[in-house]
Amino acid sequence: MISYINDVDGNYIVRVHHTHSIVLTSRPSFDLSLVFRKAIDFIVPGPGFLLHYLPPRASEAELFHMSCPFMNSYLTSKAYECLYFDTSVGRFTFYKEALIATGIRGRMWLVEYAFVKDTCGIVCYREVLDRSLTVYMVPYFRSDNRIDYSIHIDENPYDGLGWLNRVFDFLYYDSNATRRLLGVYLGSYVSIWSTQLMSKSESTPLFGIAIPVGSIIRALAGNVSGWPGRAISILSIGSSMLYFGIISYYTTTDRCFYPYYIESTAFLVKDEGDYYRAPLMVVSPNTRTPSQYPPPPTPPSYESSFSPSSSYCPPYLSHPP
Known about the structure:
Elements: E1 2-5, E2 13-24, E3 29-36, E4 43-50, E5 61-72, E6 81-84, E7 87-94, E8 98-104, E9 106-120, E10 124-139, E11 149-154, H1 163-173, E12 177-181, E13 185-193, H2 194-201, H3 213-221, H4 229-233, E14 237-239, E15 242-257, E16 260-269, E17 274-284, E18 287-288, E19 291-292, E20 311-312
Parallel strand pairs: 1-17, 5-7
Antiparallel strand pairs: 1-8, 2-5, 2-15, 3-4, 3-10, 3-14, 5-6, 6-7, 8-11, 9-10, 12-16, 13-15, 15-18, 16-17, 19-20
Helix pairs in contact: 1-3
């Protein structure tokens, strides 16, 4: 999950809270996407793998759980424990504006496949019909059979430096990505659930929120020779495990929240002739100052306790920034 706190929100967001949970109820699978050199816009499910783990006589196992508050040191000196399961892994702060990323740790391999045609007559020769890329990611499991955690904070989200900044830029400006408004909320906090994103994007619950591992690879290793950067960026991994994530934002005063997230439409479903919308837990709270209703004329029948003026959030008509 990635939270983006911009220079405006940094004046009001005092706390950002990330919560993750991955529960294994059966044998989970990971589905890997493939991109092709001769048809860059065509992405299909590729090879996958299963995890064979469930404790004896157990119907489910929690492989990953983390609850981590990040405090804005520009607004407060307080800091709270970040818990990985029941163990504190530190106290984390950011200063005013930041990119905050949390999740699992793993190892990735980028693999190129060649699709070949062998023809034999008097002599045999091989013709390469096409080439494809896929990426494998295997989570790091600790000795207690739990997936290891990862926390990254970038306090300079505009300098273009660092892998997290580059990953965010790849996703934010990608031609296959759309920034989608989740709603309008008035108050001093808002919580964004991964299930909300799936509902808003109308994506199937049978396919977990995609991990944009291709963007991570580009940020860490750059482009691969002979392949357009966009083809690499849209490689992803989907998981069939039971997962939920929550990002909560807390402000020092009531604000209008216009939270938006990033939705990828890179996955072409060939049979349907349409693109599958994959919501990503890349969220900005995107706050504004509440407006005031103009005082309306008070009818005689109104009670004396009637308050004609109250805060409200006007509709956000333009595209999320």
